[in-house]
Amino acid sequence: MKVKNICCIGAGYVGGPTMAIIAQKSPEITVTVVDINEKRIAAWNDPDVEQIPIYEPGLSEVVAEARGRNLFFSTDVDAAIDAADMIFISVNTPTKTYGMGKGMAADLKYIELCARQIARVAKNDKIIVEKSTLPVRTAEALKRILDNTGNGVNFQILSNPEFLAEGTAVTDLHKPDRVLIGGDLDSEKGREAIQALVDVYAHWVTPDNILTTNVWSSELSKLTANAFLAQRVSSINAMSELCEVTEADVQEVAKAIGMDSRIGPKFLKASVGFGGSCFQKDILNLVYIAKSFGLNEVADYWEQVILMNDHQKRRFAAKIVKTLFNTVSGKKIALLGWAFKKDTNDTRESAAIYVADYLLNEQAEIVVYDPKVTQEQILADLDYLGTRSEEENRKLITVVNTAEAACAEAHAVAVMTEWDEFKTLDWEAIYTHMLKPAFLFDGRRLLDKEALTDLGFEFYAIGS
Ligand code: NAD
Ligand code: UDX
User: Fold this and answer.
1) Is 436 labelled as part of a ligand binding site?
2) Where along the chain is substrate bound (predicted)?
């Protein structure tokens, strides 16, 4: 079977870029990305392609190439489901904030709503693709909903987790390390469905990089990949604290161990803590699943990755307070960067949010500059924590348009995101306009310690 019409439910950080690349590489397939969020769809359709709702290097060019040709964005979910022979579900699966599994389990209500809507609308056989990250065995629940509430049509369910990282989504999608497809390998229809999806990716991915497995392995591999990646960051961050008290340098340690081909050099960058919408959510979910099977040692093992990360964020903020003579009350502290990593406007679970919150509790005055994050988003992130009233947040935090404005008259500057532009700021001028002693805290090991110390800064970097 050749897929001619694809629908993707969810036009977010995954659905948008993934479908844009599928459409770019498969001109004969019509791809419609749908969402209930009208504002988001309007932004995807903005005539000025630079206004699309997600900032990713190279994405606007891909959208410009395919949009209106075979890539469409719409709020008419029913129509897109009806027309499609393959439906990707790419809706959010956040950590539950209520009831059983609160704070741990993935909230699957959006997934279930999609399944029920597909079951109601579908009039011909369809392949359903789990693109969202889901707990292992979710496909079983989807199948039961689809088969019991549908119009008697046949649904094949595939798992096709997405491994793109934000900030490099376009290159990750163009050249994936692997594409993982899980399906029912034991039935003819299952194998046909798998092949149909393999054929879509085969437009640009070599067969060796397309891996097929059973559904459960595929679902669990996604959680496992994120757990392993986050574990490396927590491991090096644990070492960063030990480096600071022993005069070892975490960058040198990372280089030394990374040259061991069994360890490898990637994901060994000590930082103020990992953020992003995936790592914490997916590990918490893994911990919850392990506990639900009574596997307490497995659960405790992985939970430690999160506890270490929480500690890293807290200790960075505490270091600022301690260094500033044990009080930041009424002091201006500039935060450079708010996004959870460079080259994205996504702020979900960003370390900056937690460091800011800690410093606000110490009555600091925070000034933020981020090249891609809006004031509205920064305030929303803080309000969401619910630590203090919205009025107080607005009184204590200011968002400005340049790094220089953020740092002027500040007692301290903290680099929270590794944006390239921070490396080439006029640090001499910034030093001149700061209060003295001028403290600089590098949460990303982005800056040149020697050069900045020579300029007069009191310089601290994570891990040395
Ligand atoms: P997102 O919040 O950016 O996008 C999800 C979109 O789904 C939202 O726009 C929302 O309005 C829409 N939606 C929810 N319910 C809907 C419904 N019933 N009908 C239509 N639209 C609906 O989320 P995201 O970052 O794109 O993540 C989506 C999934 O992909 C999650 O499971 C996540 O874990 C996974 N994932 C994310 C990344 C990443 O880097 N962000 C990477 C790999 C996997
Ligand atoms: C991650 C996974 O990498 C990706 O495969 C998955 O699909 C989604 O989750 P993402 O969260 O977008 O991607 O970014 P990633 O590059 O993994 O960074 C996550 C966080 O870890 C960021 O805050 C980053 O700054 C931090 N990090 C990463 C470090 O602190 N040190 C490192 O060495 C690497």
Assistant:
1) no
2) 162-166, 222-226, 262, 269-275, 340-341, 444
As for the ipTM of the complex, it is: 0.98
The answer, yes or no, to whether any atom of ligand 1 lies below 6 A from the CB of 162, is yes
Tokens of 349: 């679970």
The residue whose CA has the least distance to atom 4 of ligand 2 is: 165
Residue 149 has pLDDT above 90, yes or no: no
Atom of ligand 2 nearest to the CA of 266: 33
pLDDT digits (tens, 9 = 90+) for 339-393: 999 999 999 999 999 999 999 999 999 999 999 999 999 999 999 999 999 999 9
Render pLDDT for 190-215 as a digit per residue (tens, 0 to 9). 999 999 999 999 999 999 999 999 99
Q: Is 235 in the pocket of ligand 2 (CB under 6 A)?
A: no
Q: How far apart are the first and last CA of the chain?
A: 58
Sign for the CA dihedral angle at 253, 258, 263, 269 comes to positive
Our answer to whether residue 407 is catalytic in this structure is no
Which residue(s) pair with 128 in the sheet?
87, 157
Model pLDDT for residues 430-445, shown as the tens digit of each residue: 999 999 999 999 999 9
- Determine the Cα–Cα distance for residues 4 and 22; give it in Å rounded to an integer: 12
Q: Cis link prior to 135 (omega < 30° from 0)?
A: no
Average pLDDT, the chain: 97
Helix (H, G, I), strand (E, B) or coil at 180: strand
> Catalytic: which of 7, 8, 243, 278?
278
Q: 91 CA to middle of ligand 1, Å? A: 4
> Is 8 annotated in some ligand binding site?
no
* Ligand sitting nearest the alpha carbon of 80: 1
- CA torsion 439-445-447-448 (nearest 10°) is 100
Distances (CA, A) of 88 to 172, 288, 424: 19, 26, 42
Whether 277 lines ligand 1, by a CB cut-off of 6 Å, is yes
Q: How far is CA 162 from CA 85, 196, 206, 222, in A?
A: 20, 17, 17, 8
Domains, the chain, ranges and CATH? 5-205 (3.40.50.720), 307-461 (3.40.50.720)
Other CB atoms within a 10 A radius of the CB of residue 224 amount to 15
In the structure, what pLDDT confidence band is assigned to residue 80 with cuts at 50, 70 and 90?
Answer: very high
